[in-house]
Amino acid sequence: MKRYVYINDDELSQDLYCDNRISNRKYTLLNFLPKNLWEQFSRFMNQYFLLIACLQLWPLITPVNPASTWGPLIFIFAVSATKEAWDDYNRYLSDKKANEKEVWVVRQGIKKHIQAQDICVGNVVWLRENEEVPCDLVLIGTSDPQGVCYVETAALDGETDLKTRVIPSACMGIDFELLHKMKGVIECPIPDRDIRRFDANLRLFPPFIDNDLCPLTIKNTILQSCYLRNTEWVCGVAVYTGNETKLGMSRGIPEPKLTAVDAMIDKLTGAIFVFQIVVVIVLGIAGNVWKDTEAVKQWYVLYPKEGPWYELLVIPLRFELLCSIMIPISIKVSLDLVKSLYAKFIDWDNQMIDQETSTRSHATNTAISEDLGQVEYILTDKTGTLTENRMIFRRCCIGGIFYGNESGDALKDVELLNAVSSGSSDVIRFVTVMAICNTVIPVKSKTGAISYKAQSQDEDALVQAAACLHMVFVNKNANTLEINFNASIIQYEVLDTLEFTSDRKRMSVVVKDCQNGKIFLLSKGADEAIIPYACAGQQTRTFTEAVDQYSQLGLRTLCLAWRELKEDEYQDWSLMFKEANSTLVDREWRLAEVCQRLEHDLEILGVTAIEDRLQDGVPETIETLRKAGINFWMLTGDKQNTAIQIALSCNFISPEPKGQLLLINGKTEDEVGRSLDRVLLTMRITTSEPKDVAFVIDGWALEIALKHYRKVFTELAILSRTALCCRVTPSQKAQLVEILKSCDYRTLAIGDGGNDVRMIQQADIGVGISGREGLQAARAADYSIGKFRFLKRLILVHGRYSYNRTAFLSQYSFYKSLLICFIQIFFSFISGVSGTSLFNSVSLMAYNVFYTSIPVLVSVLDKDLSEKTVMQHPQILFYCQAGRLDCYPFYPPYLFTFIFKRKISSCVFHLLELLLMDY
Amino acid sequence: MDPNGGSSSAGAADGASDPAAARRRHSKKPKYSRFTQQELPACKPILTPGWVISSFIFVGIIFIPIGLASLFASERVVEIVHRYDKDCVPASYRNDMLAYIQSNETNKTCTRTFLVPKQMKSPVYIYYQLDNFYQNHRRYVKSRSDKQLRSRASENDTSSCDPEDVTANKSAIVPCGLIAWSLFNDTYGFSVNNTLLGVSKKNIAWKSDQQHKFGSDVYPKNFQSGGLIGGAKLNSSIPLSQQVDLIVWMRTAALPTFRKLYGKIEVDLEANSELTVVIENNYNTYSFGGKKKLVLSTTSWIGGKNDFLGIAYITLGGLSLFLAISFLLIYIIKPRPLGDPTFLSWNRNPAGHFN
């Protein structure tokens, strides 16, 4: 399926595709009432209440005034309908704001100011700096002579760095006056949600260019909701509009999460319903028997000899109505009410404000607070979640000399500073590579201060460090870099950039020194991707030692290397590179191969060590939550050594004598299988010992384990209280969550980046850290917090209180309904089993609303224990996790426990027991 | 994926594009208040031995005198209960009491005599007590029309009175319904030592019923005129608000055994005097085996004779004292420090988990 977009053709594509009107609304004015009612009635409880309310309209059987059921029913429906309507109205307002934003669009060859919602597919849209992109556009022109522009894609993928976008080669060099009149066709796929892929072709019509097909990639597009930065203007052709944009397609209403307590309430409701039916049948039969044997003797009741056909049903139906209050009608409304209060308490909590950025904690999902108190597994990301994700250059090893080992900070090491100022060539080259071997864009603010926009935090750290060593990267102008070294400007021309891929694990740039015309290859990358390519004869042992030493300290290491290229060598390679760059098939693989041809015989300059500091309070938080019986799994994309080091430093795993690490590795199915069996065996043996055992698995082995040994791995997952999963992909993270969920564990996933979003959405509770990797995780999450350490308070204080309060409230709701219902049932035995209500309608309503609902709602402000006590004895959380087992054995919570254990039959038994206890 | 379930792209982008603004919005602090920080003052009494023991002693000391006083008051009430349903049926009808009560020919008058055991100070209340009579049966209790009873204008409001709502020729019965229809119709005449005693009907009905629930302009109409006669007839020249027996009867009893006030004797009855009651035994309780009893009782400050309250108070008070003493003994013999953490479940159970 393809879509053909004709550029600037007002007639052709006008009606074929939807316009650019964004709509997130669920209802319209007309369908609101029927649709909303339908949705509300699709819930079992509401159907039940409606049935009861309808039965009450029959005066022969109703024990009370129908208003006593209709009133609350209508009230409850009105409340939820109002809430829905309000939410929908707000969505409508924000849609309207976006739809009515004014943009410049070319219509009939003239630039016009129109509303964003009127953009059609094929229109040419003009945007200026800092404007938001109204729909998905294919670039055809920018203010930049090289055809480059910068966009910020934070709204799309949460990454806050600037991304470079270029115009397609076919449009290069077209005068901006002519862009109005451009004609052509873009062949592109039908709309999809993949924001990293856009495989399309562009063909311009004469007179612009000979009829050549020009391939388009995602690099040639700017997508809806991105922002244009650092570029004066761009213009592009609208290819996807309205709800068919990449963003619109990926928008979806996530499935509402159900808490354990909710599920329990549902089950309890079902059990009570069954019990109620039993009561109705028993009492109905008893009532009919009494009527036929006793009531006929009671002359004053004056029963007719022959009744209507439905006579047998009358008494059972009366009892059904009498017992209908067993299921409390108000429970949903009161729970919704208190749950939003819990969420507010989280929002308001002054002790969960991140003072550095003054971000507050926020509960996006107001419905699942009590689940926080029942968490059993926490799956956490590493970078940015446990660590600060603020990379700081700490140590380096240049030409075999270690800097920063004494002070722990190379930038303060006098020897290094001396070496830079004295112009030691090794050091100068090292610092130069640090400064220019990257894709960082320096941005000069009005005051003259330079800030860097970097795609990776590591690059940012290196450039900053280079700047501290007087090698300041000041300007990047198309292909020319300017370095300010000791007050003199050095210019380099970037000839090629050999980009970083996770397979190559390194990146390089080819630069030309503008002063002497020499060409250099500058590389940086992981040790295993650089050291093997060292030129023959160079001693690499010190570098390997340095790498080992640094990673022992939990530092992230990078090797820097360089090589001078001969003019003709470069020219030969450059041709190959250009060719590979323009292939359509297997481009990435071809490029890697070509890069490989240049990246050899490197002269290794040194090793950098970057520290990603642990956040404050991480070890304490993990320890406290551990004591509360919560198991931790760390899922990281980082490599095994670093992950283990970080895990050690934050109490995640214990060092050798006390703890034990079991590695699962292997490249083939058999190897992984054997490894798994071995680990499982050890795990079974050591469960009885007081030893912290953790298993470590990497992404590759995990892939195989999940595919072929799912059962074994699941068993391992249940046994293990701690696990480290390294080099895992976002989808594997989500799969791990799924495995734990399938074993009926309550899981909490916490992360900060776009790669954690899937796991966050998959888990019972998703917590996002509003950190440096953007807000994407925080926005997808149910709760967003500023720092990892707030998790302790979130779970132990808010989660626990919420759970206790909800448990109390729901138990109480059932208790009070059952109580009054049992009074009615008992009364029926002394009123001739005729279904008389002991209470009149007003009393019943007053009991339900004024005596037992509103006052009890105040109990949600109760604290059973002080915050301090809970923090000191996190073990208290066991009670919550176990679903309040052992807590009040002679109180309705017992029912919950039994439902929890899935023994509905014994639950009914206990209801009877409860009945006896009440009287 | 949009977590907000679809805030528009524009809204989402605004938040992200300008993190500073987002932060500012987030940090829109609500003013610090003890409510928002969940620091409202609260008290959480800890049940220390001292507290528990002293409150039990307190309860015991308060409850036992109350119980004794109630019991004493109840003892002073003089109550005569006399069952007459069987004895008032002549011996020849004993095998078919139903025929006796349903027949119009039989003589229903019955004279009973009994001794007054102790002096009864006036007023002496006269009750009739019915057993196994379901005034709370749903069919019965619903069969009345409060509107009709209240005002003459709603005379025809008899829809809820089925099956005693209208006569055969469709004119409304006032008062309608099974309750009124089955009005109790035994009567009692009293004499002591052959002097007749007057029975006062003053103030035997609730004042509010007389003033608000039963209209002074509503007169009985078509009452007991159908083929089936239920209970007593009403004098159709007296308004319902003055028909005190009806008003008492229409306050339906919640339990199948109940007493209703019949009247008052306004003179003292001396001990050992002989009381003669002339009973018109009209009311049919024989078909369902119900008992009829005549009750004469004086009152005290706790009302009629009722030992339960006193016994309950004394039992509770005694139990409290007993608990107080046993707790005290345990506390003295085997004290343990308050807040001993070794008793915490996770300290007793090294595995840590319950399940």
Automatic annotation (TrEMBL), chain A:
Residues that hold Mg(2+) according to the record: D381, T383, D752, D756
GO cellular component, one term: plasma membrane
Domain named P-type ATPase A: residues: 99-162
Ranges of residues in domain P-type ATPase N-terminal: 5-70
PROSITE patterns named among the record's database cross-references: ATPASE_E1_E2
Binding site for ATP: D381, K382, T383, E459, F500, K524, R556, T636, G637, D638, R727, K733, N755, D756
Domain P-type ATPase C-terminal, first and last residues per copy: 778-882
UniProt xrefs under SUPFAM superfamilies: Calcium ATPase, transduction domain A, Calcium ATPase, transmembrane domain M, HAD-like, Metal cation-transporting ATPase, ATP-binding domain N
Keyword annotations of the record: ATP-binding, Magnesium, Membrane, Metal-binding, Nucleotide-binding, Translocase, Transmembrane, Transmembrane helix
InterPro entries: ATPase_P-typ_cyto_dom_N, ATPase_P-typ_P_site, ATPase_P-typ_TM_dom_sf, ATPase_P-typ_transduc_dom_A_sf, ATPase_P-type_domA, HAD-like_sf, HAD_sf, P-type_ATPase_IV
Protein family per UniProt: Belongs to the cation transport ATPase (P-type) (TC 3.A.3) family. Type IV subfamily.
Protein name: Phospholipid-transporting ATPase
Organism encoding this protein: Vitis rotundifolia (Muscadine grape)
From TrEMBL, chain B:
Record region (Disordered): 1-34, 144-165
Transmembrane feature ranges: 51-73, 308-333
Major localization listed first in the record, in broad terms: membrane
GO CC terms: endoplasmic reticulum; Golgi apparatus; plasma membrane
Locations listed in the record: Membrane
A family per Pfam: CDC50
Compositional bias segments (type: Basic residues): 22-32
Keywords, comma-separated and alphabetical: Membrane, Transmembrane, Transmembrane helix
Compositional bias of kind Low complexity: 1-20
Basic and acidic residues composition-biased segments: 144-155
InterPro entries: CDC50/LEM3_fam
Membership in a protein family: Belongs to the CDC50/LEM3 family.
Protein name stated in the entry: ALA-interacting subunit
Organism: Vitis rotundifolia
Taxonomic placement: Eukaryota, Viridiplantae, Streptophyta, Embryophyta, Tracheophyta
